[in-house]
Write a structure and sequence with these properties.
Strand order of the largest sheet: 1-10-9-6-2-3-5
Order of helices and strands: EHEHEEHEHEEHEHEHE
CATH architecture: 3-Layer(aba) Sandwich
Number of domains: 1
Helix content: 25-40%
Distance between the termini: 12 Å
CATH topology: Rossmann fold
Strand content: 15-25%
CATH class: Alpha Beta
């Protein structure tokens, strides 16, 4: 795992966005196209802002897949990830080769099967992800399924994950937060050639510590990133505050 510690959230996101853009250009130069995975949430604000402002990316050669989505949430709900990605990414770049959203209002098995079949035709070059306060990767809350090879799965959201969504202002109360989501599986995320993980903020410090310095365990799902040969973790000083040896991780 390659770790960079930046001063604040803005610098963290900017650095992650710059690296992501370079990997996308590299994939297009090498094979004529690129496939990317995009995450959502507050950790990705600055990343997507930088990515959409980068020059020299031939977006019509880029295929995008969506990382996760709540089940049953209307598309126009302020917490909906389709709405988030449309407003913060899709509408800000030229026409993409393809945009593959998760429809959280569709019949779940059919939607998982549809996306799973589709993504197997598009090896992923760059995955942009974050880490939850509970250590989740996508919506794979602990104890996460490390074994399934199904690319998209239905997952249950735990209390800590759902409360995080309330604390970030996406919902007014925990009762409003859906209890299930469709999520890209751990195994599918790990198939990505490059993973760029961006995790700013003090409230993520414990999750960052278990991801970087803990034992690889499905009780801290993001710890699996230790096993990926090309994972780049961008954190700010607040998120890095519990790490034992910060100087060795810059």
């Amino acid at each position: 795992m390659h770790i960079q510690i930046k001063q604040d959230e803005q610098q963290t996101g900017k650095a992650a966005g710059i690296l992501a853009s370079s990997f996308i250009r590299e994939a297009i130069d090498r094979k004529g196209s690129a496939t990317i995975i995009l995450a959502t949430g507050s950790s990705q604000f600055e990343v997507l802002n930088e990515l959409t402002n980068e020059n020299g990316i031939d977006w019509k050669r880029v295929t995008m897949f969506h990382l996760d989505e709540y089940i049953g949430l209307p598309e126009k709900h302020k917490a909906g990830f389709r709405k988030y990605l449309k407003e913060r990414f899709v509408e800000k770049v030229p026409l993409l080769a393809a945009v593959n959203f998760i429809n959280g209002q569709a019949q779940t098995k059919k939607e998982c099967d549809r996306l799973s079949k589709l993504i197997q035709e598009f090896p992923v070059d760059v995955a942009l992800v974050g880490i939850g306060e509970n250590g989740h990767l996508a919506f794979n809350d602990p104890p996460a399924d490390f074994e399934t090879k199904q690319p998209y799965i239905v997952v249950d959201l735990d209390q800590k994950c759902r409360q995080q969504q309330v604390n970030e202002g996406w919902f007014s109360s925990i009762e409003e937060v859906p209890k299930q989501a469709i999520s890209m599986s751990i195994q599918q995320i790990m198939l990505s050639k490059k993973i760029i993980c961006t995790v700013p903020g003090k409230r993520k410090a414990e999750a960052v510590k278990c991801t970087v310095e803990g034992t690889v365990s499905n009780l801290c799902p993001a710890s699996i990133l230790q096993n990926h040969p090309n994972c780049y973790l961008f954190i700010d000083e607040d998120a890095a505050s519990l790490l034992e040896n910060k100087s060795a991780k810059n």
